[in-house]
Amino acid sequence: MSLKSNFSAIILAGGYATRLYPITLDVSKPLLKIDKRAIIDFSIHQLKGIEAAKEIIVVTNEKFFGDYLRWKKKLRIKKKVIIVNDKTRTDAHKLGAVGDIYYAIRKRKIANDVLVIGGDNIFEGSLPCFVNSARNKSPNISIGVYDLKRRSIASRYGVVKIDKGNRVLEFKEKPRRPESSIVAMCMYYFPKDTLAYFREYIKDLRMDTDRAGDYIKWLMAKRSLYGFKFSGAWWDIGQLDTYHKAQRYFSKEDK
């Protein structure tokens, strides 16, 4: 595979973030502000510097579609940014992370590699380094991982075990007793010839489309999976305490 070939970046913003109510009742979680910046802007900033990212696709829902169109108008970026509406209106009818990825792939008729980023993730590590590593590992699948250093808090996430070559040996979704402090971020790189697995998982097997971790675990029987360790700070804004920690962190940085 040529490392000069283009890929599509999909940012997931189709959830309803019920765990953060009431602050997300009328605001999409990736549009929540962290020191004057929307959470999603952190990912956009890193994608700006990746020449091979030919388009950025933000998948949202009917409830917040207009908000993302207004957000897009204020962006200062030369890359093509597309806002995709998955047509759902409530949490009960959401497509889920896997469903939204598949929806975007079909809607945009994507036939090249795909980088997926959770719209509620904030990370300081280098996205270009992750992409370069993932493209070198193709046709295998790569995921972003992060060492929390403490097993006690890893149970909130998908916990992974990796070998010295960074191959993922085991993946457990939110285990009660984590055996590792290394967790999976919502950061995936899917080479183009792995995109057909989405249809198999959703249409043929009719598996649950909400938890991306379940899909990644299922994929391990299909392809080798490699983890790329991100350095620096990382937050998955899934709960209020994490959101407030990120706010405090960036508030201190700007002083």
Q: What are the defining features of this structure?
A:
alpha/beta, Spore Coat Polysaccharide Biosynthesis Protein SpsA, Chain A, 13 strands, seven-stranded mixed sheet, 255 residues
Question: Secondary-structure blueprint of this entry?
Answer:
Blueprint: E1 7-12, E2 33-34, E3 37-38, H1 39-48, E4 53-60, H2 65-73, E5 80-85, H3 96-107, E6 113-118, E7 121-123, H4 127-137, E8 141-147, E9 158-162, E10 168-173, E11 182-190, H5 196-204, H6 212-219, E12 225-229, E13 234-236, H7 240-253
Parallel strand pairs: 1-4, 1-6, 4-5, 8-12
Antiparallel strand pairs: 2-3, 6-11, 7-13, 8-11, 9-10
Uncertain runs are none
Task: Encode the helix/strand succession as letters.
Answer: EEEHEHEHEEHEEEEHHEEH
Shape verdict? globular
CATH architecture of the domain at 7-143 and 187-192 and 203-212 and 234-253: Alpha-Beta Complex
Helicity range: 25-40%
The termini sit apart by: 45 Å
Name given to the CATH homologous superfamily of the domain at 7-143 and 187-192 and 203-212 and 234-253? Spore Coat Polysaccharide Biosynthesis Protein SpsA, Chain A
Q: Name the beta content range.
A: 25-35%
How many distinct helices? 7
Class of secondary structure makeup: alpha/beta
Q: What's the main sheet like?
A: 7 strands, mixed
Mean pLDDT: 94
* Widest beta sheet: strand line-up: 5-4-1-6-11-8-12
Computed CA radius of gyration, to the nearest angstrom: 17 Å
Q: What CATH first level of the domain at 7-143 and 187-192 and 203-212 and 234-253 would be assigned?
A: Alpha Beta
* Number of β-strand runs: 13
Q: Assign the CATH topology of the domain at 7-143 and 187-192 and 203-212 and 234-253.
A: Spore Coat Polysaccharide Biosynthesis Protein SpsA, Chain A
